[in-house]
Design a protein that fits this description.
52% of the residues lie in helices and 9% in strands. The protein is built from 11 helices and 5 strands. It starts with 60 loop residues before the first helix and ends with a helix. Keywords: Membrane, Transmembrane, Transmembrane helix.
């Protein structure tokens, strides 16, 4: 009579992609502990649980060298480009006094009193420079006599050479911006104007609510993201510094806007991705996917903006820039904006797809690159639907007043869509969306190829097998 057979305490291990009888208990920073299947520490099983503390990264030298062979020259080219095109600072020019190109000071509304609107144009002490003979704080407001009560606001200048001076503004009841006592405002200052007309209210001072909102955002990011959130905020600060210290001054200095945008966006991409996600093969694959997608966006944008004859000079702000700096290529500036605007969403897509493929490989190490690609692309399709819709709605929301204006004019859909104002946004949206869609299969394929081709080196001395390990190993 034979003794009853008891099943082993653990199921037989699945075939591991790693050759040899087993793998030792590893403590590498970029890789989880245990064998490829994550079940045992040795060939026999030991205790059956995994010790993965984070994302696993390929450790084989040939893959590290392959990725470095692409990214190291690219990074070097970005550094050289930054050094060559780095501007000396913002170029100076005589102020035009139009739009944002004028001197401004901080001020406070000290008193607000009621007065008949009928006497607003002849009231003593009013300021005609505010628009319509001193009867409006809204620039460009129409001049008309109006029944009812207006408000006469006295404003005290708080900064600049005229600190302590006061002037008055007449606020009509139909104006969108009403002044209130104690309110902080921004005033335009024109030193060449007559003394009584040198100051006029242009905006309200919203520094405190903006700073408070930014603080809430930073706290939320750190509380939810913890250390990753801190790194994300640092990367955001670096991105802003590159934008304000390199991209904008270099364009104003006369450098090619497209070249400056490509180099600046590449620097932002490298710093933000590696700072937030670590220096690993996973992040490097995301960088490669982002780089390929950005290149596609640049090529498509250049082709269709030239084909559609988009000048990039469509509103007062771009007209002012062209007037002050006629050497700036406005169509190149438009394309530069498309590239920089697409970068943030591209980072999200490429990092998500790379992480998805890595986790699929961790769950099933025996899956080949085709299986990883098919599984990853299924995840990517859901991502594509949501991201493209988000991008289109974001552009539509920004252009909503313009679209409303065309609706009021009762223009046809074709006329609206092909007008340069709207065509810019349409081309910007579609080019960016094509780049986003392309980034999913590109990044997924790169990640699947890299993670499935990884073959870590086998250690010279195999660890001592656990009890019964050899017998179970021979049965596989």
């Amino acid at each position: 009579m034979t003794a009853p057979q008891h099943p082993p305490p653990f199921p037989p291990a699945e075939p591991s992609p790693v050759p040899g009888p087993g793998r030792p208990h590893r403590h590498d920073s970029g890789e989880g502990h245990g064998s490829g299947d994550g079940r045992a520490h040795g060939p026999g099983g030991g205790h059956g649980h995994s010790h993965s503390h984070g994302p696993a990264a390929p450790v084989s030298r040939h893959l590290r060298r392959l990725i470095a062979a692409v990214l190291v020259p690219f990074t070097a080219a970005v550094v050289v480009g930054l050094a060559v095109l780095w501007p000396d600072g913002l170029p100076t020019h005589p102020r035009s006094g139009v739009g944002f190109d004028r001197q401004t000071q901080q001020a406070t509304v000290t008193t607000v009193t009621d007065m008949p609107c009928a006497s607003a144009n002849t009231a003593p002490g009013t300021d005609p420079a505010s628009g319509s003979g001193g009867t409006s704080t809204t620039e460009g407001a129409p001049t008309r006599q109006q029944a009812g009560d207006c408000k006469k606001a006295t404003i005290r200048v708080d900064t600049g050479t005229g600190k302590g001076r006061t002037f008055t503004e007449i606020v009509r009841p139909d104006q969108s911006r009403q002044l209130h006592q104690g309110e902080k405002v921004v005033v335009a200052y024109e030193p060449s104007a007559p003394r009584d007309l040198q100051y006029s209210v242009t905006d309200v001072n919203r520094s405190f609510p903006m700073a408070l909102l930014a603080g809430i955002f930073a706290v939320a990011v750190v509380v939810v993201g913890r250390m990753r959130g801190v790194m994300a905020l640092i990367a955001l600060t670096v991105s802003f510094l590159i934008l304000s210290l390199f991209i904008l001054p270099a364009i104003l200095q006369g450098s090619n806007p497209l070249l400056v945008a490509v180099i600046g966006a590449s620097a932002i991409m490298l710093i933000a991705l590696y700072l937030c996600h670590g220096l690993s093969a996973r992040t490097s694959v995301a960088v490669l996917g982002t780089l390929i997608s950005l290149s596609l966006i640049g090529v498509l944008g250049s082709l269709f903006m030239g084909w559609a004859a988009l000048t990039g000079n469509t509103d007062d702000n771009t007209g002012l820039i062209h007037g002050l700096y006629p050497h700036i290529d406005m169509s190149g500036l438009l394309l530069a904006g498309v590239i920089i605007g697409s970068l943030g969403v591209l980072d999200d897509v490429t990092v998500t797809q790379t992480s998805a493929v890595w986790e699929l490989h961790e769950a099933n190490p025996s899956m080949g690159w085709r299986g990883l690609y098919r599984a990853g692309i299924r995840i990517g399709r859901d991502h594509i639907a949501s991201v493209v819709n988000t991008l289109v709605l974001a552009y539509a929301g920004a252009a909503l007043p313009l679209l409303l204006l065309f609706s009021i004019a009762q223009s046809s859909v074709t006329t609206v869509a092909t007008s340069e104002l709207v065509a810019e946004e349409v081309v910007r949206t579609l080019v960016g969306s094509i780049g986003l869609v392309a980034s999913v299969p590109v990044t997924t394929a790169l990640a699947a190829l890299v993670v499935s081709a990884d073959r870590p080196a086998v250690t010279a001395a195999a660890p001592a097998p656990a009890r019964g390990g050899k017998r179970r190993r021979r049965k596989r």
